[in-house]
């Protein structure tokens, strides 16, 4: 919300020397967020000038310029070069003299151009920051102005004003108006506030739609399809002004205020309706009365109806859309945008003014359904004061009479079915208990009165039924919120207002103290340890969206046949990604694609996150949710928990490009399955888990380069390289290393007590072992067998060679392992090492018919 300060001063006593920073600080004190400061960016000297004469001069570039003599209130006229042609001798214009600064910033100086010394510049409206129109220079007569030469044009046009911009939270819709912000500034500073609506209501005539007077304009509110059992329209006010000259210019003071507020000047009548909306917070719509057919009907749309809105878009209407109609059909989307058929034009002479109040939910749905946000819908969605409609209509009438030469007509109507705010009983000590500040009874009452609420003593005392109240003031007051505060619905919201008005600085900053012996759980510590290990090894942690397409879940999920069971969102943000993820891999691949498109070709990424793994055939759902602040029963909680699918945490990593960059004497080493397996073992090592890799199958992985990862007899994930066809489909390099592990399972299987291995002090004995085994035997399986057979003396075993070729029978392969033996208390002999190795050979022969390679 942009707040022009000159406008703010109309309703609250802002000190004349208050800076923008001062005003923002005062508004922040009552709960607004500081956004920005806006000015026109014009500094003097900028004055009024009269064109005394000008001479057109054709130039060699085909352009014709005017050499002008302009009276700027000095002893001698100034010579100025001007490229515009929309003026005549005697016109009053705006002249930027040398030393002035225009928006851009664009400094003005005397300069030689087109053979003349141009001593200033005749400015257009756009060059002055007054709008985007640029049909030539600004002629003051078009604004209805006839000042003397030399008058300060900055003050004349209101270009010395500035605006502060604040962020208004959704629950405080009343602050989308000068009336609301002025009231809040008064709350913050104690400055005198004048409510502009009060005087307008006194001047407004009382016209009842149900009355017998023939001057009543016919209005029927016929809402047959209320949203959430609430009628779509509670207030509908109409007024008529005749004899309007819609072609008259908008006065400069209004143009400057609207401009600072971020609203483009369109035409006088439209500018007036926008001005009143910003001033009072009540959206206003004006109709060309002569284009209307009969009275107005407020109703829901019927099947097949269409409407051409003011943006010239033909819109197919929905049955929930609330419409303004006349005898010809729909003429406006209520609370969102009017129709083109009844639009105000420069030929309009009779204006029907509409000021209504519509249901926030209905307006929000219509605006989103048609992708048509507007300043009006923004206010209705957040709640508009139902009692300000009559005042706003009166304000528009008075401005049309004053600025457009109109005459007030008796024709009009007021439909009012607004529901009065509900009174709330508030114990005087409730705010202190909730906020933790010792508020006095007078502070509670005074704060609520200040925001406009009616405060009365309650006719009973609830202290007897609430033993917590015994220690302090136990009085009870009845609070009726003001009509412009629909967000005040219970005791807690009233307590928040007390805290806000008395001052947030009264609320102490107290850090909670953790109970002794508490802290991170074992699982939390281990998850952090894993993340630190991968990050320390050069990987980058990322966070992907948990929503996937069904195709991505089926392609990367662990189930191969029949699709992957997944949870579908009832109201997805993106219809193409409507399923909760069953795997982390698609998110990592999407992030890799995005980074590749930005030129990052060597990537090492990992993510720790939850996946959602429903059981096939089980229907999950939340069941009936509890209402409001009511605590659900034990059975209801059990039902809610039963409706949640298993959500284990997984960890996944991706590697592509080069894991080792090319350097002098060092060729590049491409990423792949080796990096994925190394990451898997690093994760396992961080969790004190012994991981075993075996040949595996996964529908998204390269069939010959896939390892299934095991802890004991439990499968915990996969590592390998992405299937080349999928990599090509995703525009990724042919080789992409991937690993995904069930982190919760690894933490569960990991050792709770880890003992550090002491540094060996005895020398090691090393031997190699080459075994011929069937080609289908996994190297990891044979390695585990060797470790088991060699016994306690074997310290390390590594696969160093896989040979298939001459000297090896078809269907067999030779696997060579490097063995390292060590005893903790003595130096091993060669015989002891050989004995342990032969024990391993014997076990491998028994299990797999392995033979020593000659």
Automatic annotation (TrEMBL):
Localization: Cytoplasm
FDX-ACB domain span: 760-853
Protein origin, superkingdom: Bacteria
Domain B5: 419-509
Alphabetized InterPro entries for the sequence: aa-tRNA-synth_II/BPL/LPL (IPR045864), B3/B4_tRNA-bd (IPR005146), DNA-bd_dom_put_sf (IPR009061), Fdx_antiC-bd (IPR005121), Fdx_antiC-bd_sf (IPR036690), NA-bd_OB-fold (IPR012340), Phe-tRNA-ligase_IIc_bsu (IPR045060), Phe-tRNA-ligase_IIc_bsu_bact (IPR004532)
GO biological-process terms attached to the record: phenylalanyl-tRNA aminoacylation
GO molecular function: ATP binding; magnesium ion binding; phenylalanine-tRNA ligase activity; tRNA binding
Main location per the UniProt record: cytoplasm
Keyword Cell division among record annotations: no
Quaternary context: Tetramer of two alpha and two beta subunits.
Co-factor note (free text): Binds 2 magnesium ions per tetramer.
GO cellular component: phenylalanine-tRNA ligase complex
Reaction(s) this enzyme catalyzes, per UniProt: tRNA(Phe) + L-phenylalanine + ATP = L-phenylalanyl-tRNA(Phe) + AMP + diphosphate + H(+)
Phylogenetic classification of the source organism: Bacteria, Bacillati, Actinomycetota, Actinomycetes, Micrococcales
EC numbers for this chain: 6.1.1.20
Cofactor entry: Mg(2+)
Cross-referenced Pfam families: B3_4 (PF03483), B5 (PF03484), FDX-ACB (PF03147), tRNA_bind (PF01588), tRNA_synthFbeta (PF17759)
Signal peptide interval: none
Protein name, entry field: Phenylalanine--tRNA ligase beta subunit
Positions of the TRNA-binding domain: 40-154
Keywords: Aminoacyl-tRNA synthetase, ATP-binding, Cytoplasm, Ligase, Magnesium, Metal-binding, Nucleotide-binding, Protein biosynthesis, RNA-binding, tRNA-binding
Binding-site residues for Mg(2+), renumbered to this chain: 487, 496-497
Family to which the UniProt record says this protein belongs: Belongs to the phenylalanyl-tRNA synthetase beta subunit family. Type 1 subfamily.
């Amino acid at each position: 919300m942009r707040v022009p300060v000159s406008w703010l001063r109309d309703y609250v006593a802002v000190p004349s020397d208050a800076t923008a920073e001062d005003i923002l600080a005062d508004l922040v004190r009552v709960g607004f967020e500081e956004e920005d400061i806006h000015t026109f960016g014009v500094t003097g000297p900028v004055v009024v000038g009269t064109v005394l004469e000008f001479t057109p001069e054709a130039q060699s570039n085909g352009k014709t310029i005017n050499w002008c003599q302009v009276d700027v209130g000095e002893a001698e006229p100034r010579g100025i070069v001007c490229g515009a042609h929309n003026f005549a001798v005697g016109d009053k214009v705006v002249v930027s003299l040398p030393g002035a600064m225009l928006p851009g910033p664009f400094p003005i100086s005397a300069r030689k151009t087109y053979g003349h010394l141009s001593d200033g510049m005749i400015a257009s409206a756009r060059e002055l920051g007054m709008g985007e129109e640029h049909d030539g220079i600004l002629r003051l007569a078009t604004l209805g102005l006839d000042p003397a030469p030399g008058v300060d044009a900055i003050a004349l046009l209101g270009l010395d004003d500035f605006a502060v911009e604040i962020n208004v939270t959704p629950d405080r819709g009343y602050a989308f108006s000068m009336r609301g912000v002025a009231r809040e500034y008064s709350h913050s500073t104690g400055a005198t506030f004048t409510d502009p609506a009060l005087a307008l209501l006194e001047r407004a005539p009382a016209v009842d739609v149900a009355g017998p007077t023939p001057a009543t304009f016919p209005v029927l509110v016929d809402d047959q399809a209320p949203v959430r059992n609430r009628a779509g329209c509670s207030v509908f006010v109409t007024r008529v002004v005749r004899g309007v000259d819609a072609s008259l210019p908008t006065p400069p003071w209004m143009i400057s205020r609207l401009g600072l507020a971020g609203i483009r000047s369109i035409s006088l009548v439209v500018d007036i309706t926008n001005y009143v909306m910003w001033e009072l917070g009540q959206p206003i719509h004006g109709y060309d009365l002569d284009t209307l057919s009969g009275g107005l009907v407020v109703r829901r749309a019927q099947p097949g109806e269409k409407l051409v809105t003011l943006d010239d878009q033909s819109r197919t209407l929905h049955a929930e859309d609330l419409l303004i109609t006349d005898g010809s059909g729909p003429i406006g989307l209520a609370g969102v945008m009017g129709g083109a058929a009844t639009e105000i034009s420069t030929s309009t002479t009779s204006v029907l003014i509409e000021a209504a109040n519509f249901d926030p939910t209905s307006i929000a749905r219509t605006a989103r359904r048609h992708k048509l946000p507007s300043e009006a819908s923004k206010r209705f969605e957040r709640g508009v004061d139902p009692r300000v409609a009559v005042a706003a209509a009166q304000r528009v009438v008075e401005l049309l009479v004053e600025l457009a030469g109109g005459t007030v007509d008796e024709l009009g109507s007021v439909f009012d079915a607004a529901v009065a705010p509900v009174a709330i009983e508030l114990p005087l000590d409730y705010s202190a208990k909730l906020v933790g500040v010792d508020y006095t009874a007078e502070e509670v009452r005074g704060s609520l009165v200040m925001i406009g609420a009616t405060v009365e003593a309650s006719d009973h005392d609830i202290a007897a039924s609430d033993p917590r109240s015994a220690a302090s003031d136990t009085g009870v007051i009845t609070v009726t919120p003001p009509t412009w505060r629909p967000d005040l619905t219970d005791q807690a919201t009233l307590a928040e207002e007390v805290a806000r008005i008395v001052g947030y600085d009264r609320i102490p900053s107290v850090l909670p103290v953790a109970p002794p012996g508490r802290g991170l759980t074992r699982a939390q510590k281990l998850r952090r340890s894993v993340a630190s290990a991968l990050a320390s090894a050069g990987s980058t942690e990322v966070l992907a969206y948990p929503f996937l397409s069904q195709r991505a879940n089926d392609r990367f999920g662990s189930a191969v046949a029949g699709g992957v069971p997944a949870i579908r969102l009832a109201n997805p943000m993106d219809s193409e990604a409507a399923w909760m993820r069953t795997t982390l891999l698609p998110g990592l691949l999407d992030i890799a694609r995005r980074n590749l498109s930005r030129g990052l070709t060597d990537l090492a990424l990992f993510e720790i996150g939850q996946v959602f793994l429903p059981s096939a055939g089980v229907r999950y759902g939340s069941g009936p949710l509890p209402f409001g602040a009511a605590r659900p029963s034990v059975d209801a909680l059990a039902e809610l928990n039963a409706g949640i699918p298993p959500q284990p945490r997984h960890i996944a990593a991706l590697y592509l490009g080069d894991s080792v960059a090319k350097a002098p004497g060092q060729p590049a080493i491409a990423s792949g399955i080796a990096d994925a397996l190394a990451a898997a073992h690093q994760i396992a090592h961080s969790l004190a888990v012994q991981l075993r890799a075996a040949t595996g199958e996964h529908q998204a992985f390269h069939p010959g380069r896939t390892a299934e990862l095991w802890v004991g007899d439990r499968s915990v994930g996969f590592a390998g390289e992405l299937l080349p066809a999928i990599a090509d489909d995703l525009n990724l390099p042919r080789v992409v290393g991937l690993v995904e592990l069930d982190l919760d399972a690894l933490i569960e299987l990991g050792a709770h007590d880890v003992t550090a291995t002491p540094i060996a002090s005895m020398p090691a004995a090393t031997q190699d072992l080459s075994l011929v085994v069937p080609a289908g035997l996994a190297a990891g399986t044979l390695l585990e067998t060797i470790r088991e057979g060699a016994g306690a003396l074997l310290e390390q075993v590594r696969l160093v060679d896989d040979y298939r070729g001459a000297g090896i029978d078809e269907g067999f392969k030779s696997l060579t392992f490097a063995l390292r033996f060590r005893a903790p208390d003595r130096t091993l002999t060669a015989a002891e090492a050989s004995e342990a190795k032969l024990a391993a050979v014997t076990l491998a022969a028994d299990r797999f018919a392995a033979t020593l390679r000659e």
